[in-house]
Write a structure and sequence with these properties.
about 50% strand, mainly beta, two-stranded antiparallel sheet
C-alpha cells in the first residue's frame, strides 16, 4: 500500500480545511438569519383583542308633554228651509299630558247666523226639537266668547300591560257664553265617559260610553225671544276605527250616537271622518268632517286643527 507523502498531503489538507470552513460559515449565516427573522411557521399571530363598544343610552322620554292648538269649525244646518243655521267656532286649546293623566281646556270664539231664539250648538247640547217657526222670524248674526270646556282623563290600563287600553274621562262645560244672544245656555254641563281601544298592528278599534248631566236654564230670553229650555240627562256612545298609513299620516272613522237632549227632540246620530298628519314630533294638522245621520236632520261640520307641542 502506497502512503501519500507529506508533499501530497498539502493540497488535500487545504481542500478539506476550505470545505469545512465554508460549511461552518454557511451554517452560522443561516442561524443568524433565522434568529433575526423568525419563520412564519414558528411565529404566532398576536391574540385578537375584542373591544366592546359602549351601548348607547336611549333618549329619556319626558314624563309629561304639553301642546297648544288652534282650530276652525264650520257648522251648518239646513233641515228647515228658510231657517238655515250657520256657525263658526275658532277654539283655542291647551293640553297637558303625563303617563297617566291628560288635562285639556278649550276656549271657543263663536260667530253664528241663526233665527232669533236659537241656542248655539255646543257639545251634545243642541236642541233638535221641532218648533213652530214662521218665515217672519228674524235671522241674526251674533259673535262672542262661547262656553269654555275643560276635561281630565285618567288611563286605567294600557295595552303594554293588559289586553286593551282603558281610560276614564270627566268633562265640564262652563256656562260662560252670553245667553242673551244665544251663544250658550248660561248653565254648566257635566260629562263622564269610559273609553277602550285595541290595536292590531297599524289598525285599531275604539269604543266609548258616557253619561251627561245637562243643566237647564228654564225661562230665558234670547234675542228678545222668550224661551223655556229644559234638557234631559242623556247617555251617549261611539264606535271608531283608525288606520296608520305611515309614520306621519293616519285616518279614522267614528259613529256617534246619543239620546235626545229635549223631550220630543231627535236622537243624535253622527258619522265622522278624521285625517291627521304629523309634520314632525312637535307639529300636526288634523282635518275633521261630520255628517248627521238622524232622520229629518241635514247638518254637517267641517273643521281643521293645528297643534304645536311645547
Amino acid at each position: 500500500m502506497n502512503i501519500p507523502s507529506p508533499q501530497e498531503f498539502g493540497p488535500i489538507t487545504r481542500i478539506l480545511l476550505l470545505s469545512l470552513l465554508l460549511a461552518f460559515s454557511t451554517s452560522a449565516f443561516a442561524e443568524e438569519i433565522t434568529a433575526e427573522k423568525p419563520s412564519e411557521v414558528i411565529a404566532e399571530s398576536p391574540a385578537e383583542v375584542v373591544v366592546e363598544k359602549p351601548i348607547g343610552t336611549p333618549p329619556i322620554k319626558p314624563k309629561y308633554k304639553s301642546a297648544f292648538s288652534m282650530g276652525i269649525l264650520d257648522m251648518s244646518d239646513t233641515s228647515m228651509p228658510g231657517q238655515e243655521i250657520s256657525q263658526r267656532d275658532i277654539p283655542l286649546a291647551f293640553s297637558f299630558e303625563t303617563d297617566k293623566y291628560a288635562f285639556e281646556i278649550s276656549i271657543p270664539y263663536i260667530t253664528r247666523t241663526a233665527p232669533s231664539g236659537k241656542v248655539a250648538k255646543s257639545h251634545h247640547h243642541e236642541s233638535k226639537k221641532n218648533e213652530s217657526t214662521t218665515s217672519t222670524t228674524s235671522i241674526l248674526t251674533t259673535s262672542g266668547l262661547g262656553d269654555i270646556t275643560s276635561s281630565l282623563t285618567y288611563n286605567l290600563m294600557s295595552e303594554e300591560d293588559s289586553l286593551f287600553s282603558l281610560s276614564v274621562k270627566g268633562e265640564i262645560k262652563l256656562g260662560t257664553a252670553d245667553v242673551a244672544v244665544g251663544l250658550g245656555t248660561g248653565v254648566n254641563d257635566y260629562f263622564g265617559e269610559l273609553d277602550a281601544s285595541k290595536s292590531f298592528g297599524d289598525f285599531s278599534l275604539s269604543a266609548g260610553l258616557g253619561y251627561a248631566v245637562l243643566g237647564s236654564p228654564g225661562e230665558i230670553e234670547i234675542n228678545d225671544v222668550k224661551k223655556t229650555l229644559y234638557f234631559n240627562n242623556i247617555f251617549f256612545g261611539a264606535l271608531g276605527a283608525e288606520y296608520q298609513f305611515s309614520d306621519h299620516f293616519k285616518m279614522g272613522i267614528e259613529l256617534a250616537t246619543g239620546q235626545a237632549t229635549e223631550t220630543g227632540g231627535t236622537e243624535q246620530r253622527d258619522f265622522s271622518i278624521t285625517m291627521s298628519y304629523d309634520f314632525n314630533e312637535n307639529k300636526s294638522l288634523k282635518l275633521h268632517a261630520l255628517r248627521s245621520l238622524a232622520p229629518g236632520i241635514t247638518s254637517r261640520t267641517l273643521g281643521a286643527t293645528f297643534s304645536i307641542a311645547m
